[in-house]
Amino acid sequence: MTAQQIIFMIVAAYTIGSGLMVVTTRNLVHAALWLVSTLFGVAVAYALLNANFIAVVQVVVYIGAIAILFIFAVMLTRKDMRDSGPQMNKNWWAGALVAVLVFAGLAFLLSGWSGFRNIAAELPAEFDAIGLLGEALTSPEAFVLPFEVASVLLLAALVGAVYVAFNPRSDKK
Amino acid sequence: MSFWNDPLKVAADWLEGLLTGWGLDAVFAHVLVAFLGVFLLIALLMVLDIFLVWIERKVVARFQDRVGPNRVGPFGLIQPFADIIKLIIKEDTTPGGADKVVYNLAPILSMMSVLILWAVVPLAPVMLGVDLNVGVLFLIAAGAIGTLSIIMAGWSSNNKFAMIGAFRQVAVMVSFEIPMLTMLMIPTIYAGSMSMNTIIQAQDPIPFFILSPLGALIFLIAAIAELGRAPFDLAEGESELVSGFNIEYSGMKFGMFYAGELLHAFTFGGFWMILFFGGYRFFGLEQVSPFLAILILIIKAMIGYWVIMWVKYTMMRIRIDQMLGFNWKFLTPLAFALLLVTALMNALLAGAPTWLYVLGMLLANVVTGWVALEIARSVTRKERMQVEGVKNPVEAHH
Amino acid sequence: MVPLSWYLMFAAALFSIGLFGVLTRRNAIAILLGVELMLNAVNINLVAFWRYSDVMAMAGQVFAVIVFAVAAAEVSVGLALVISVYRRRNTVVADELDMLKW
After folding, report:
1. pLDDT tops 50 at residue B6
2. Considering only CB atoms, which chain A residues are within 8 Å of C29?
3. Does the global pTM surpass 0.90?
4. I need a labelling partner for A116 at 20 to 30 A (CA). Which of A15, A152, B72, B136 fits?
């Protein structure tokens, strides 16, 4: 095993371990914090894939915004900070079975694919992924339309979230 | 290449040669030397941090017409060491019902979020941790970890004041991140790169604060809010929340929050200087020696830190609704407008001579700021008329 | 070098864990946490495909960026719904939100 493979193994094990904690921890704030840990692992995986920009955006968007939002939501939706009652439904074994089956099915499908064991080519010298990404996101021949649609989606979600979560009663004094 | 031109590389090469000479694997030696560099940088920062305590106390004393620490050692220089000894030997308490792991992790993360910022700080043209091509975004990413540490501290302390403080601070940090990120895009537009070193190199004849004074100002305001310092210190709010998110922390755990805050302020002073005032450059002096460049950067960062302290000790705390209203209704739209104007002017003046480019940018900034202030003035006047007009008709006639 | 298969298996494992969370958790917020894991797994795949095929074609990274935007939108609306439901029904357990069933 090369150093890169060892690093990947450690990162993958750490991320999957944290992911398991996300779905099994009883305390929901802990689950959200384990999600942060998982997201960090995924960010490191992006960095290992030479996708610096995606790795940093992962930290900024997921940890800086989404995870914080989750922690806020967990704290806002509980009268007391304790967790009572079972956290999983009574069909948890069926869920586990489906998850294992999906994993087995994905592994089976992927292993039959010809490009499964591909090795990455060396990056070209002076490779500027950010410049390329910026051009791809803004040039009309590439992805400017999906990018703009994504921004409209975000705006709509923002307005929708404010409308849905707004409490008219709190406005009356 | 001699030691005086590139000390870091020469020292690292020498050490690596020494280690491989002892029979170590080359890769392993490289990693070991890199770790050593990181430890060295962190150690230096922590020593600096100790003196920041002294500087902060001396400066606040001067602002408040006092002398400040002057008993222990010459000019009270030994005072911070006495403070550290006091902090270390204090009882290390954990409140009952606290979430132990999260509670102990929070101060570490808080300190870490500041220290990792220095990974991308170019100390001299040849001395920097990593020249990340996403350097300015790294700033926001580290801030995200800081936000996380505060909400962890507030939640795990099992204390309602800590919780309120954390909620406030996180609301502030998340919302002020937006103007900050927008303002980080302005040096990026000028330099055509997000790498810190390229941004500094691009300020060769003209530092960016001349091109975009408004951008520098908005960045400073957002940075102060991100730091949670007065006038945005509602998270701590000594007189209402007693100490905010770190109320339950004692001893060195509190010390880590405190030291982290001071170092954070100093670091943001440094980043302000790097992004808008040319970082380590000072009329070509930085080319003489890397050591001189480091000295210039530290002096500049101290000036930035002093400005942050100046604001802190002359402004009063504002309310949370005023603060969020200020951000969402004024600062964020202004930042977006400025970014649009800057990008537009940059495209329009692409082929123009330097003097025209600088003048155009400066004018665009001044006009944007003036229009924003006029709009804010007319809106606030209307609001004031609505409130005061009925109550105080004599005032309205003036 | 790490072969592509490792990344794909890693992503598949993360996806299955997320799926398990979505299927078994009772708390609506925990279900959303599972959805986040699944979206992240998809993103790993997208970036890995970008790296292991032509790096000059940025489609993989572009789609990863769009997944970020979609995830942010999903979380903001989802959590707003959860908070709104909590305000009306005083519970966030998905099983207890059964007003349509009578």
Report:
1. yes
2. 28, 70, 73-74, 77
3. no
4. A15
